[in-house]
Design a protein that fits this description.
5-stranded mixed β-sheet; two-stranded antiparallel sheet; 9 strands
């Protein structure tokens, strides 16, 4: 052994390298597993929020014989800050607009729109917690999505908005798979329908649909908003959860309140 090479300068043995690699693998595995646990918790939380709002809507409908947001006596029977609707049976973007194809609805259109006032009515009537009724027409939800004060969802800058209209369903199911109802929409923008505002990856959207519904993007109570159908599924395609696309947040789900 050369005189300049001491025992302290020797390299790692194979055993030591193996131990290091095992430790790194455990750390990486723990991180990935932790991310899965967090995502699963978010999915369960958003479904719990959905169930709360759905129950609140049904109670409101039973009590006032009108949908929240559409109730024409809300300002006198509930609270003066709640704007009256026109009681035409639809929770519409603006007064007088009936339900249309749900994929074309922006979900909230200013503080006077019925689908904005939907949540205002639920909070004011004491049926849905988490929002603070103010002296103006705004309801403040802590952590709500911008630009409207809407109930926050478990993903960053994401909230639930409302779209009352018809989801056309699958091409094979035709009219039989079309559903007209009040839909709760999960999105990062209250006023824009576009894949750039989508909160979920295709994998997350599929997992939510599979765990809590039928796993298909165009049938059941959980559906794709018809935004970016090439990735998130459409009338003739399923959710694309391959590694090539699963990292992008491109999917925008809607939940039937029926």
């Amino acid at each position: 052994m050369p005189s300049y090479m001491s025992r302290d300068q020797r390299g790692f043995t194979l055993i030591e390298m193996s131990i290091v690699l095992v430790i790194i693998g455990l750390i990486v595995g723990g991180i990935l597993k932790g991310q899965e646990v967090i995502e699963s918790a978010r999915q369960k939380n958003v479904m719990a929020l959905y169930d709360q709002i759905r129950a609140a809507q049904n109670t409101f409908l039973d009590r006032y014989k009108a949908l929240p947001g559409d109730y024409n006596e809300a300002s006198t029977k509930i609270h003066s800050s709640v704007v009256d609707g026109n009681r035409n049976g639809y929770v519409s973007e603006s007064t007088g607009v009936a339900g249309t194809n749900v994929s074309s609805i922006a979900a909230a259109n200013g503080a006077s729109g019925e689908n904005y006032m939907y949540f205002q009515g639920l909070v004011a009537s004491g049926l849905f917690a988490g929002g603070q009724l103010t002296t103006t027409t705004a309801t403040v939800f802590s952590g709500g999505a911008t630009p409207s004060a809407l109930p926050p969802a478990p993903w960053s800058n994401t909230g639930l908005t409302v779209a009352h209209g018809t989801h056309t369903g699958t091409a094979t199911g035709g009219a039989a798979s079309a559903v007209t109802t009040v839909w709760l929409r999960l999105a990062t923008s209250a006023t824009t329908v576009a894949s750039a505002n989508a909160p979920l990856t295709a994998a997350s959207a599929f997992q939510i649909d599979q765990k809590f519904d039928d796993g298909l993007p165009e049938t059941g109570r959980i559906r794709n908003m018809d935004v970016n159908s090439g990735v998130c599924g459409g009338a003739t395609t399923d959710y694309k959860i391959t590694a090539a696309v699963s990292g992008a947040r491109e999917c925008d789900l809607i939940f039937s309140t029926d």
